[in-house]
Amino acid sequence: MDELVETLCFRLHIERGERWRLKQARFDARPIANHTWAMRELGYRKTEISKQVTPTANEFVKNNAQAVVWKACDAYDAYESALKKWRNSDNRDELPKPQPPSIDSWGAFPLVMNYGEGYELHIRDDDDRVGYRISAQPYKEKVRGFLRGSTHDLDRVKTALDSSSTLEVGRAEVVYREGVYYLHVPIRQPVKIDAAEDAESVIAIDINERNITTTVLDRQSRETLAQLTIDYGQIKQKRQRYYDIKRRCQEHDKHSVVTDIGSHVENVTEWTLHRLSKVIEHYVQWFSKPVVVFESLEGIRNDMDYGSYMNRRLHKLPFHEFERQVTYKTHRHGAPVEHVESEYNSQRCACCGERGSRNGGRFTCKNGACDLTQDHSDRNASVNAAVRWIAKTETGDDSHSSADNYRPRKTPPQVRVRRVGSGRHNTNGGSVDVNRPTSSREIASCGVLHH
Predict the structure, then answer these.
(1) Are residues 184 and 275 in the same domain?
(2) How many domains does the chain have?
(3) Of 13, 128, 145, 314, which residue has the fewest beta carbons closer than 10 angstroms?
(4) Which pLDDT tens digit goes with each residue over 110-131?
(5) Are residues 204 and 184 both part of a single domain?
(6) For the whole prediction, is pTM greater than 0.85?
(7) How far apart are CA 298 and CA 348, in angstroms?
(8) Residue 57 within a domain
């Protein structure tokens, strides 16, 4: 039995208690985090650091201080992991070196609290809202109110508060963003991940800088059950715009503007990735015993060398973050996630396995005996990924030569991919907002892209 941790975000509606106490607690947490990073750099363990940096009872809630120490240690461990990957990279000169957390930083740090002592949640009898109690400072008035958020997330918290439920509420954080306080509540849930070998439907995902393309194959017959292409070019456009503004502002020493725009771009990117991964989560539930297959991205940045401009564009794309979000969301439903090699997936025909030619989004098969003449290159790559996973499961080898015995012999269904610019245009007599990712009509009707 595996454990799935999902962090839910809620807005704090404060009814009682002083709002400034949350701010003061966040600023008081900063020196604790700085001290933790300094000791972690010297090689101290978490338990040793907790004994050294715990403040007196009148300065900071002791239990909250321990939680801040653990979060700071996790942040430093993440830095060491990133630094190790950077050192093992073949092109370190082109990649930014990870920087350690600053031990003399000033400003606020997230207020981290353990459930029970640092904060509590309860279902109010009068209005059925999820109420909260936060101990921001020791021996002072508690901050109380209720949580605002989506109905789905609030229902999950209510379920976790039920003593008979298998869900558990974990260590939460109070963060401040754009004038609003939020509470990040982790929910722990035991899940059973199905064995990938027992899968009946193979959902292969190809992700690139323009779109995300999925193809679903029946494992036994290799027939195409469904396909989906979602454009998300807005992320690339915003990142490019941010880079241009950042470069000009740095020339004029306008660093505060750079920070504000960078936060906006990161928020938009995170919002878009959550919407895209939500689509994949809904998609997974439609098929019997699915397995999600990604192309392996290990070392992908080391293998790309297309010049400084293209390297910057491709290195900044959030491939791993999208894969991470899809993984934990599909694990909710017991679907396993697998990986296959990615070389030449978009350049080999999914039906015959021969090398073809790719021109942008169009793939052309050069084999005259093959029924497939043209296809969307990204959809062709997703079919190859699905076939290679089937071959890997059956033979232990996911090479293209091994996959030849498992290729679909029928031509895939025709697919028309919209190529749009900006603004609005008319399609089939109706108005279409091209600023939103394209999706199938059935998925769009569920509203997962519009919340």
Answers:
(1) no
(2) 2
(3) 128
(4) 999 999 889 999 999 999 999 9
(5) no
(6) no
(7) 21
(8) yes
